[in-house]
C-alpha cells in the first residue's frame, strides 16, 4: 500500500485515538499507525480489543492463546511477535506454550491445547464447528458465550492480520526479540492454508 504509516495525525479524532493508544499501551504500535489510514478501523480495533479483554470470560492467558492461534493460521508475523510478547511478559504464559503455538506443535497444557484446537476449528470451519468439537469444548468448562467470544476474537484478528498483510507492517522494536522465536513461519503458513483447502 502506498499510504504508509500515519505518524502525525491531522484531525482531532485521530489525535484522540493516538493519545488513548499511548495511554493504554504505553506506545504507538506500527499497526495502529497503518490502521490510522482509516480511523474508523483503528477505533473499531481498539474498542473491540477492550471489549474482548474485559468481557470474554477468558483469562489473559487464554485470550493470548486465541489471538496467537488465529494469527498463526492467518500467517501474520507481526501479530505473532506482538502477541507472543504480551503473552510471555504480561499474561504470564510460558515460552513453551507460545513456542508450541508459533511452531504448530503440541501445547504442553491440555486445556490450552483444547482451546487452541477449538479456535482453529471455528476459524477453518467458518463458524461451523463439528458437534463433537463443540461438546468437547463445553465439557472442558467453557461456555456457549465463550464460543461467541471466539468469533469476536476472529473478527478482531481479521482486522489486524489483514491490515498487516496489506501494509507489510514493520515489527516494532519492542516485539523484535519475540520474532526470532517464531522460527519457520513462512513455510508453515502455506502448509496450513493448503491443508484446509
Could you characterize what this model shows?
The chain is built from 11 helices and no strands. The chain has 197 residues and is mainly alpha-helical. The protein is globular. The chain has a domain at 60-195: AhpD-like, CATH 1.20.1290. α4 packs across α9 (144-167). 36% of the residues are buried. The two termini are 28 Å apart. Mean pLDDT is 86; it is low at 183-194. The protein has helices at residues 12-25, 30-35, 39-55, 60-73, 77-89, 95-102, 110-124, 131-139, 144-167, 173-182, 185-195.
By DSSP, the count of extended strands is 0
The value of Rg in angstroms is 17 Å
**Helix count?**
11
CATH homologous superfamily caption of one domain: AhpD-like
The CATH topology of one domain, please? AhpD-like
What's a quick, concise take on this entry?
The chain is mainly alpha-helical and 197 residues long. It is 72% helix and 0% strand. Helix 7 packs antiparallel against helix 8 (131-139).
Please outline the helices and strands.
Layout: H1 12-25, H2 30-35, H3 39-55, H4 60-73, H5 77-89, H6 95-102, H7 110-124, H8 131-139, H9 144-167, H10 173-182, H11 185-195
Helix pairs in contact: 1-3, 3-9, 4-5, 4-6, 4-7, 4-9, 5-6, 5-10, 7-8
Essential attributes:
AhpD-like, 11 helices, 72% helix, 24 kDa macrophage-induced major protein, single chain, 197 residues, globular, mainly alpha
Amino acid at each position: 500500500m502506498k499510504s504508509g504509516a500515519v505518524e502525525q495525525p491531522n484531525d482531532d479524532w485521530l489525535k484522540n485515538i493516538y493519545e488513548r493508544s499511548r495511554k493504554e499501551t504505553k506506545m504507538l504500535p506500527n499497526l495502529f499507525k497503518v490502521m490510522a489510514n482509516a480511523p474508523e478501523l483503528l477505533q473499531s480495533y481498539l474498542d473491540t480489543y477492550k471489549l474482548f479483554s474485559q468481557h470474554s470470560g477468558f483469562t489473559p492467558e487464554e485470550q493470548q492463546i486465541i489471538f496467537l492461534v488465529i494469527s498463526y493460521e492467518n500467517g501474520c508475523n507481526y501479530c505473532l511477535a506482538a502477541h507472543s510478547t504480551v503473552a510471555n511478559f504480561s499474561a504470564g504464559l510460558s515460552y513453551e506454550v507460545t513456542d508450541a503455538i508459533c511452531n504448530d506443535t503440541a501445547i504442553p497444557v491440555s486445556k490450552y491445547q483444547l482451546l487452541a484446537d477449538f479456535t482453529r476449528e471455528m476459524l477453518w470451519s467458518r463458524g461451523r464447528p463439528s458437534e463433537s468439537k463443540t461438546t468437547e469444548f463445553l465439557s472442558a468448562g467453557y461456555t456457549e458465550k465463550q464460543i461467541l467470544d471466539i468469533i469476536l476474537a476472529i473478527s478482531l484478528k481479521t482486522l489486524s492480520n489483514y491490515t498487516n498483510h496489506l501494509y507489510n507492517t514493520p515489527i516494532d522494536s519492542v516485539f523484535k526479540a519475540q520474532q526470532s522465536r517464531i522460527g519457520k513461519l513462512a513455510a508453515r503458513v502455506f502448509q496450513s492454508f493448503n491443508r484446509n483447502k
